UniProtKB/TrEMBL annotation:
GO terms for molecular function: ABC-type oligopeptide transporter activity; ATP binding; ATP hydrolysis activity. InterPro entries: AAA+_ATPase, ABC1_TM_dom, ABC1_TM_sf, ABC_transporter-like_ATP-bd, ABC_transporter-like_CS, P-loop_NTPase, Type_1_exporter. GO terms for cellular component: plasma membrane. Residues 41-361 form the ABC transmembrane type-1 domain. This is ABC transporter ATP-binding protein. It comes from the Bacteria. The chain crosses the membrane at residues 36-55, 116-137, 183-203, 209-232. SMART domains: AAA. It is found in: Cell membrane.
Length: 638
């Protein structure tokens, strides 16, 4: 149970791991975008258009004031055109504006307003198109990454899965790729546009009036510092909140998964108390985070107003006094243009700081995905591997040793041979290496030394797929998919007809209970076969193995007990299934052991005894002790 909680917390933690190899990851990531480079070029062009349309606006508004609105006033004050020209030095849009009559001025102003509207429209369309283009490319990239990952995950060995949690892998395929997709289609564009806008606006301000620009921009460093500080604090608080959320989830997961134990041990009240506590911690962390986020906007707004006040104050005073600012002649239009510029800086500064985090976590997500894609395949077919010919079923283990962790031998010098069609039972205490032996046959793991051959062929010389296709496996808790019973059995042989599926079910003695299900063979099973009893799930997995009609059968007998009637059915089904096939059984049933042609007794990774039931009992060794402690009870019960 603790494991679940730790894991959920681990997941939460990962979100904040900073990317380590940014340039390498980005380069690899760019590879995914290569097929869509044209779309990218179009998107960047559209971003430039959109930013350009925004940068143009303040200047046009300033020009409207200088050329069409202040000119008449100046004309009234002045006595001639030359004075007028001096008083509106910043009118570059229409230098002849001062010579126009008022009707022409209105018309000129109308055109300028129409241009502004056109710019707004152009900006909006370009913006929409950018998001569509990036969203489109992002989805394509996302799909390719997920498919690549899914494909790779299917080829990774059991060794890999014993080291990784399913939840973690799922999170890489879903959450990480989702974060990346969002970053591509939203954060990246906004940050790019934001940076472009800031640089462009500042450049325009500096070129229009270096000194006025510097005065106006004094506030920008404060904006940047406060944004960085507040968002840093908010991020920390959100991190705490997410960690607490991880605890809430872990607590929930434990209580729901372990609801039977909770009820059986009457732990409801303690659980509620725990849940209350972790929720309270989550609430406090969230409130803190919200407090910092709420404080950021007014602070920036306040600083923005100060900047506006500086522009208005400095500009206004100089205008009223008719003074130059170190050689720059100010006009009302220029002051208004600067006011507008300053206003435009506020939003991108705020956005960049927030979205930068998204981009960082997307890069970290991409790193995790590439890490998974780089996970080496442990079972690789030799370049000259052949297809396994139809198996007869003679199997030989020669001096086989195996280890999961380098240097820690789990199987030592295992040698035995089985003739085609015979049943071999493997018994031994827990951890003796029984599962390891059966995992080596279909090459779920490779031997460390020695050799396993089937019909005289080393299993390493044939392709794993052609070998596995001819081996049937029934595990203690075989996985049933949430699909119909028919398809679950057909999984053993996708080309089987409905009639063949039913035949396999009959062989497995599963037909009677299946026909009694609400929709018979078309009943859809719950996740992992929920809704069926353990015995019924086993019967379906036996039918599935029968469907594949393998020459070699691997069977891990269930340890958990089922009712006597189901037990008999399973036993009968297995007997039928084992007939004529070379079978390896990790045996937990006395009947299987008694019927086996050969019994291997395993202890600490070595075969300590071998023989048939009677020989082994007579030897009064390890098997005899096992029999006395485990199997005799079954005999007594029977
Ligand atoms: N994926 C793995 N990674 C590392 N060690 C493993 C792995 N799987 C098994 N082992 C170790 O190898 C040894 C043999 O395990 P194995 O599962 O083969 O035993 P077993 O006889 O089948 O046990 P049981 O009856 O409990 O299923 C044990 O010490 C076990 O801890």
């Amino acid at each position: 149970m603790m494991g679940g909680g730790m894991h959920a917390r681990g997941l939460m933690d990962r979100e904040f791991i900073k990317p380590q190899r940014i340039s390498k990851t980005l380069k690899r990531f760019a590879g995914y975008f290569k097929p869509y480079s044209l779309v990218l070029v179009i998107a960047i062009t559209l971003v430039i258009i959109s930013v350009w349309s925004q940068v143009m606006v303040p200047d046009l508004i300033g020009q409207a004031v200088d050329c069409y609105l202040t000119a008449p006033a100046a004309a009234q004050q002045g006595e001639g055109g030359s004075l007028l020209a001096q008083s509106v030095p910043n009118c570059t849009y229409d230098p002849n504006a001062h010579n126009l009559n008022s009707a022409d001025r209105v018309a000129g102003l109308g055109w300028l307003v129409a241009k502004l509207l056109g710019l707004f429209l152009l900006g909006a369309i370009a913006n929409g198109m950018v998001f569509f283009a990036m969203g489109w490319a992002g989805q394509k990239v996302l799909k390719r990454m997920r498919v690549d990952l899914f494909d790779h995950l299917h080829n990774l060995s059991l060794g890999f899965y014993s080291k990784h949690e399913v939840g973690d892998l799922m999170s890489r395929i879903t959450n990480d790729s989702e974060t990346i997709q969002q970053a591509i289609s939203f954060a990246l564009v906004n940050v790019m546009a934001g940076v472009m806008l800031i640089v462009w606006v500042i450049f325009n301000m500096l070129t229009k009036s270096l000194i006025f620009a510097l005065i106006c921009l004094t506030i920008v460093p404060f904006m940047i510092i406060s944004t960085t500080w507040f968002s840093g604090q908010a991020r920390k608080a959100f991190r705490r909140s997410r960690l607490q959320m991880g605890n809430v989830n872990a607590e929930l997961q434990q209580s729901i998964s372990g609801v039977r134990e909770v009820q059986a041990f009457s732990r409801e009240d303690e659980n509620l108390e725990n849940f209350r506590n972790v929720n309270a911690a989550n609430r406090d962390a969230n409130i803190k985070a919200v407090a910092f986020t709420s404080a950021l906007a007014p602070t920036l707004e306040g600083l923005g107003y100060i900047a506006l006040a500086i522009v208005t104050g400095v500009g206004g005073i100089l205008l009223l006094r008719g003074q130059d600012l170190l050689g720059t002649s100010l006009s009302l239009g220029l002051v208004i243009t600067f006011l507008n510029y300053i206003q435009r800086l506020n939003q991108p500064i705020q956005q960049i700081s927030v979205l930068w985090v998204n981009i960082q976590s997307a890069i970290a997500g991409a790193e995790r995905i590439f890490g998974l894609l780089d996970e080496k395949l442990e079972i690789v077919d030799k370049p000259n591997a052949i297809q396994m010919p139809p198996i007869k079923g003679d199997i030989v283990f020669e001096q086989v040793s195996a280890e999961y962790v380098a240097g820690e031998t789990v199987l030592k010098n295992i040698s035995f041979s089985v003739e085609a069609g015979k049943t071999i039972a493997i018994v031994g205490p827990t951890g003796a290496g029984k599962t390891t032996i059966i995992n080596l046959i279909p090459r779920f793991y490779e031997v460390t030394s020695g050799k396993i051959s089937i019909d005289g062929k080393d299993v390493r010389d044939v392709t794993a797929a052609s070998l596995r296709r001819q081996i049937g496996i029934v595990l203690q808790d075989s996985f049933l998919f949430s699909d119909t019973v028919m398809n679950n059995i057909r999984f053993g042989n996708p080309s089987a007809t409905d009639e063949e599926v039913k035949e396999a079910a009959r062989l497995a003695r599963a037909d009677t209970f299946i026909e009694n299900l609400p929709e018979g063979y078309n009943t859809v099973l719950g996740e992992r076969g929920r809704g069926l009893s353990q015995g019924q799930r086993q019967l379906i997995s036996i039918a599935r193995a029968a469907m594949a009609n393998p020459r070699i059968l691997i069977l891990d007998e269930a340890t958990s007990s089922v009712d006597t009637r189901t037990e008999r059915m399973i036993q009968a089904a297995l007997e039928k299934l084992l007939q004529g096939r070379t079978s390896f059984v990790i045996a937990h049933r006395l009947s299987t052991i008694k019927n086996a042609d050969q019994i291997l007794v395993l202890k600490d990774g070595e075969i300590v005894e071998r023989g048939n039931f009677q020989n082994l009992l007579d030897a009064e060794g390890v098997f005899y002790n096992l029999y006395m402690s485990q199997f005799r009870r079954q005999e007594a019960a029977a």
